[in-house]
Amino acid sequence: MMNSAAKLDHVSEDGIRRLVDAFYVKVRLDPELAPIFARAIPGDWGPHLTKMYAFWSSVMLTTGRYKGNPVVKHLALPGVQPPLFERWLALFDQTCGELFDDGISAEFRAKAARIAESLKLALFYRPDRRWPPEPTG
Amino acid sequence: MTFVVTDNCIKCKYMDCVEVCPVDCFYEGDNMLVINPDECIDCGVCEPECPAEAIFPDTQPGLEDWVKLNGQYAAVWPNITIKRPEPDDAKAFDGVPNKLEQYFSEKPGQGD
Fold first, then answer.
1. Are A58 and B45 in contact (CB < 8 Å)?
2. What one-character DSSP code corresponds to residue B78?
3. Of A35, A36, B6, B47, whose CB has the highest number of CB atoms within 10 Å?
4. Which residue of B has its CA nearest to A72?
């Protein structure tokens, strides 16, 4: 158990690597998220993790290291439903809280929530349906 | 949701935003940039990078016309991901009001 004094009080490339590694360990053990990710990444997770280090580096440190089109990537995933984004966010938030102090965790959470909302809109918003979508149960 | 480029980009076009954008969603006109609302993931990285403070979240009231303009021209202007120097007179136009009516150009920029 990490005590709170050991929590990171700033964002660094190393902190991002630790966050991403720890988060995807949780994802791969999660009954809801694991199957989706296993279908999308059937083999070596190395390239995905490297891409996620770059993504969060771009978002949190404005390094411009990630270049990609996450909307298109997510559109191509079968089986993704809106509640999975909540599950993803809960695990991400939990992992942030384990590694970073409250202020930094809140910064990550705010970014992740905005990005999740925008991906959800891209995937699920239809002008003729209610938004946010009804829970599918 | 998306971020949008607004009036003060016109004739300033500093382009700091394009370097930090993780999803390459900026498109270049002759004298301003726009964001493609279908590609923007709302990460907000570009907002504080803009020296002209011309980028805002679309949740801010009163930006409906800018949201439309961004989407309209993102569809026809070329993608821009690499910063070039700003126009020589960028500083002089920074903060000039109502640039849309006076100076906006529909012409595409050169892109990358």
1. yes
2. P
3. B6
4. B39
